[in-house]
Amino acid sequence: MPFGDAHNQVKMKFSSEEEYPDLSKHNNHMSKVLTAALYERLRSKQTPSGFTLDDIIQTGVDNPGHPFIMTVGCVAGDEETYEVFKELLDPVIEDRHGGYKPSDKHKTDLTSSNLKGGDDLDPDYVLSSRVRTGRSVRGFCLPPHCSRGERRAVEKLSIEALASLSGDLNGKYYALKNMTDAEQQQLIDDHFLFDKPVSPLLLSSGMGRDWPDARGIWHNDNKTFLVWVNEEDHLRVISMQKGGNMKEVFNRFCTGLTKIETLFKERNHAFMWNEHLGYVLTCPSNLGTGLRAGVHVKLPNMSKNAKFEEVLKKLRLQKRGTGGVDTAAVGGVFDISNADRLGFSEVELVQMVVDGVKLLVEMEKKLEKGQSIDDIMPAQK
Amino acid sequence: MTTIMPFGNTHNNFKLNYKVEDEFPDLSKHNNHMAKILTKELYGKIRDRQTPSGYTLDDVIQTGVDNPGHPFIMTVGCVAGDEESYEVFKELLDPVISDRHGGYKPSDKHKTDLNFENLKGGDDLDPNYVLSSRVRTGRSIKGFTLPPHNSRGERRAIEKLSVEALTSLDGEFKGKYYPLKSMTDAEQEQLISDHFLFDKPVSPLLTCAGMARDWPDGRGIMHNDNKTFLVWVNEEDHLRVISMQPGGNMREVFKRFCVGLQKIEEIFKKHNHGFMWNEHLGYILTCPSNLGTGLRGGVHVKLPKLSTHAKFDEILTRLRLQKRGTGGVDTASVGGVFDISNADRLGSSEVAQVQLVVDGVKLMVEMEKKLEKGEAIDSMIPAQK
């Protein structure tokens, strides 16, 4: 039977103007696209699982803007969201992903041997290297919308799949609810564990519900390959290690990910993917590859240079603090990663990071010696 | 375009495909009223129900699932999304109400008494000790769903009705409405430090129940020119009505409270939107803890000695009073000043509850004075009220 809802039956009696959110103080992708007329056209729709327009936009209504980044302001509740609400999400995707059109096709390339170089970033500057992505498991709703039963089923499948990994990928699953506070703090300090959800961006979209039920982390014995279960996406897959050997990190990433995908397919729960949007994830910003490849790199001189932002832009890179997306840099150490997700393959994005960071370190060294960097400014990639 | 179809939801249509065991929340680490009542069997029995507006069991309990416990108080762990929640989910809410409200039974009747003249005394609490007096309650407007569930359209309609009603008051109630979204940060800070304004919703007890959605849309505060009568619109309840002033004249505070409340109720009734009330639960509010009178009558009172006395908590229990810090429900006391108020809401009338506060605080101030003089208070320990 059709289920009840937190978005009540009463609201369709109110006119669209009466229900349309006040976005006058807002600055996120959703607020730029969602006019009153569009709201009216879409507000009576729902996906097969019952996700509605108000569900999609709640996070963007509740969070007008962010001090550091242009937020997306909307999320998907299931795979069908991107189709049923394409009139909102296509323009959001286009704005967010550099003009990506509804007719565009996305290329997936997880063949790590296609990466050139990447094994020689200077470890005096590049402290650590990391590649992460997300995956959604077909047949289940996404974290803003899934029920406890679905979330637990995703966890169960994940545990089974991961338990069959071996060799360098042999590891163990730690359910969040059984973890001691000490274990948890250690994993957070090692940059392994995901935060308890405190960001209003996540909480407003319902991703914190029932915490910590069915959330957990799996990692291999070496702690170089990790999988987060049921945080912002069904799965987040991370390969990381100290130093600058991004090639090795990416190798492990591709190998592990491909093995995991095979295991899930064998259980009739492939990853959500289509040829237009690539891998389908909760946040429209993570569509395509869902990939963020980055390094923690010391750039105390470069980061103070007037052209720092411009260089990053030309290299198609972005900076974050070393605590992750909502933090500031500490001690001149920055998290530098690819800015793009959709419209480029995994190999292409990691290549940009490898080449770009190599150049940034060169620039840092020049500035240390008091030399100019004008002659090595890059062209727009 | 009219749409009759059952609406979409954050509680998806697929979940009934999962077994009860798979959907039942893990409450093993929980300590709130809901967690004590909701067994797997009960969950299985009522999980496919919804109220006419579409509120479900998972909606009711989400806040209690997400918030296992609270350091200072035993939380309720469930909320209503509309008037019908208390009926449709009575198998859960009746036992919660019984636990929370001292054994109140499903067959019990609640008495409403807003006749301030029935209060005895209350105009002479010592202002050297009693710094301020305050009475608040909540009201829900019939025909709309409650803050955990209401849509923007509903919330705005409530605001509109409230603004009409409140700006038509005159005499000592004449005042002005300030929508939250137009308030400057400075105005807002001032109102908060005057203890007039409600906090931005940061408490996970509220945010997990969905009460902060679309903030600050549709929210605001009305107060009279004297700042002794205030109404909060669309916070945890549709309306919160507050009468307050410095000093210990609780009688005056309660009179203003009753008169103002009744004027407001008349205006809402004229618009065909009376307050939610029934003879079993009294005034219907969002949190089951506020049913009945929804009334919290209290004072800020200096009790540095009494509060460190071994029998302080016992005295409070016997007087049917509770203590809080001067920042409100989630705070600790500062400088020996406590917020002392009635503990009960349901099963006794407004007059009876304020009487308990007046009599109880009078006694505690006497005790404080004795302790100051180094005298014992054993002979003054009251019987259980």
UniProtKB/TrEMBL annotation, chain A:
Which residues make up the binding site for ATP?
128-132, 191, 236, 292-296, 320-325
Using the UniProt annotation, give all residue ranges assigned to the region (Disordered). Answer: 96-116
- Family matches, as PROSITE patterns: PHOSPHAGEN_KINASE, PHOSPHAGEN_KINASE_C, PHOSPHAGEN_KINASE_N
Q: Single GO molecular-function term?
A: creatine kinase activity
GO BP of this protein = phosphocreatine biosynthetic process
Please state every residue range assigned to the domain named Phosphagen kinase N-terminal: 11-98
Q: Where is the composition biased (Basic and acidic residues)?
A: 96-109
According to its UniProt record, the EC number is: 2.7.3.2
Catalyzed reactions per annotation: creatine + ATP = N-phosphocreatine + ADP + H(+)
Phosphagen kinase C-terminal domain: which residues? 125-367
State the UniProt keywords alphabetically. Answer: ATP-binding, Kinase, Nucleotide-binding, Transferase
One GO cellular component term noted in the UniProt record for this chain: extracellular space
Which Pfam families does the protein's record reference? ATP-gua_Ptrans, ATP-gua_PtransN
Q: What InterPro entries does the entry give?
A: ATP-guanido_PTrfase, ATP-guanido_PTrfase_AS, ATP-guanido_PTrfase_cat, ATP-guanido_PTrfase_N, ATP-guanido_PTrfase_N_sf, Gln_synth/guanido_kin_cat_dom
First-level EC class: transferase
Which protein family is named in the record? Belongs to the ATP:guanido phosphotransferase family.
Tell me the protein's name: creatine kinase
TrEMBL record, chain B:
Q: Where is the Phosphagen kinase C-terminal domain?
A: 129-371
Taxonomy, superkingdom: Eukaryota
- Example of a GO cellular component annotation carried by this entry: extracellular space
User: Which residue numbers delimit the Phosphagen kinase N-terminal domain?
Assistant: 15-102
**In the UniProt record, does the keyword Transmembrane occur?**
no
Keyword annotations for this protein, in alphabetical order, are: ATP-binding, Kinase, Nucleotide-binding, Transferase
GO terms, biological process:
phosphocreatine biosynthetic process
Q: Which residues bind ATP?
A: 132-136, 195, 240, 296-300, 324-329
Q: Does the keyword Iron-sulfur apply?
A: no
Look at the named UniProt entry and state the broad enzyme category this protein falls under: transferase
EC number of this enzyme: 2.7.3.2
Mention one GO molecular function: creatine kinase activity
UniProt similarity note = Belongs to the ATP:guanido phosphotransferase family.
> Which protein are we looking at?
creatine kinase
